[in-house]
Amino acid sequence: MTVTPHPDEPRPGDGLVKAGGVVFIAGALATLATMAPLFLDVDPFPPYAWAVCMLMGVGFAISAAGVLRSAAAQRRAARAAVGADGRA
To answer: Residue 32 contacts by C-beta under 8 Å, 6 or more apart in sequence?
Structure first.
């Protein structure tokens, strides 16, 4: 027997996935802003602006951690259901 959570109920890792998405989008916007001067033939931004572009990778890592946390929670719930039920 499987236990399906209520759709409105937050699950483990949901917050990390949302936060990672926001951080990723911020990094993507920073990348677009940093690359624009190269195509517009104006002075490029200073190096610290390029460092902000690394937020894309950080956001991806945060989201991946949320997905792994969610998968681990689902695995634990499945094991507990099988253990309590006594059959697979």
So the answer is: none
